[in-house]
Amino acid sequence: MSSFAGALLATEGASKPSTSIFRRADHEPSGREEIEDINALAGRVQNVGHLMMQFGLVASQRLADALALNGQPVALLGYDGTVMHASPSFEQVVRGALSIKDGRMASWHPDSNQRLGQAVGSATRREMDLSEPCKPIVLPKRNSTRPLIATIIPVVGSARDLLHMVAAVISVVDLNAEAPRPNIAVLQQAFGFSPAEAKLATDIALGKTLVEIAAWSGVSKETLRSRLKSIFSKTATSRQSELALLLSRIPVRI
What we know:
By secondary structure, this protein is an alpha+beta fold. It has 3 domains: 3-57, no CATH class; 59-174, PAS domain (Beta-Lactamase); 184-247, Arc Repressor Mutant, subunit A (Orthogonal Bundle), CATH 1.10.10. It has 8 helices and 9 strands. The strands form 3 sheets. Strands 4-3-9-8-7 form a 5-stranded antiparallel sheet, sandwiched between helices. A two-stranded antiparallel ribbon has the order 1-2. A hairpin with an 8-residue loop joins strand 7 and strand 8. The protein is elongated, with a radius of gyration of 26 Å. 23% of the residues are buried. The mean pLDDT is 80.
């Protein structure tokens, strides 16, 4: 029979890199001296392996936090389904909808908890190839009529080079949160808005009516209507709902 000798180099979640030597059946088994040499070699590279895994994990965490800065609360999931890292905004948003204990996410609602578990299990399979689109998961809050909407995205292909040891990314949308305000500077550059038009456009993007904007800003409704007409012309839109949908695609203000 063939023989085997190996050693574990590092452990981080479900990732366990190792070094090993296989000997064919027609070779002699590994002797004591060879085993000692393998152990000595493993001891030298264990610290390096652990350090490299930590560097990879920190890089993944920084990328997740960068996404969160743009208004997208995210968490990183390992191949065992546990939360490896969560942005502060993610931890804040999921309160009342999800609990995280020992790295495991759970919903207080039985049906949602079952769907969440199935989605995490599916997304963290190593053979996942995105053959099917990820379906959003509705996560009710205990004290709110508006739930969270969660999306779990498997990390596949070359994305694994950026997100080391990460099996999937989960992002959430809080329907109770105020809509993000579009970047005014981007609006002015993209459409040639005046400062006053850009301010009005951002208020409309937040779902405010002209009556509300007039009452809050002290600008007459007639002036606001004139500015809105100019905005419609510059954006090739004709209704406030259409304008708001267009502006929702503009990067948010950080």
